[in-house]
Fold this sequence. Notes:
The protein is of the alpha/beta class. Helices cover 45% and strands 15% of the residues. The chain starts with 9 loop residues before the first strand and ends in a 6-residue tail after the last strand.
Amino acid sequence: xxxxxxxxxxxxxxxxxxxxxxxxxxxxxxxxxxxxxxxxxxxxxxxxxxxxxxxxxxxxxxxxxxxxxxxxxxxxxxxxxxxxxxxxxxxxxxxxxxxxxxxxxxxxxxxxxxxxxxxxxxxxxxxxxxxxxxxxxxxxxxxxxxxxxxxxxxxxxxxxxxxxxxxxxxxxxxxxxxxxxxxxxxxxxxxxxxxxxxxxxxxxxxxxxxxxxxxxxxxxxxxxxxxxxxxxxxxxxxxxxxxxxxx
Length: 247
């Protein structure tokens, strides 16, 4: 996106070794930000994302921590501040989906998805905000889903966590806005990633007014906009990126 300059800014993208997270990290890097590519298990993929950012003249580093572990979050946010002295952008992207009909949901499935999808972004935002408040500025973007807006059979737990992110975003925006921090959310529709690889793509396409599925870059472009000065008067919003599927 032309006209966006994030030079001298430090950005952290969680779950950035693949899919929407990787595309977002690359977009922020191309705009000039130093990007911290978070991952949990995929070290090689995270290094590939860092390499792609660096190959275009950008600056990046990989950082391994589990967003489901608040102690790890705290430790690594402290490391970011010790190393860079600032954090300007946080993109809460890390998430998992384990589908099951409501009456077949196991307690461990519910707990795991709440830990990763809901508590992870909550505590990442908590630790980011502590530093951003001192800076009097910051951009926080959380990746929710249209499933969090409209629900879906077989995805009651996923919908619960993604709906929770929307309430979290709006509440944080009201608390942090007076401190110069903008908090927004993205609600992607059907995006071609590994998470959606097992779904009947053609059946979904027929329901989408634009008659095509989205790409990670389609979502990353909107996140880049929300992380830039072009969105200076936007906070507490949920921007749907779905080709018109959810109206």
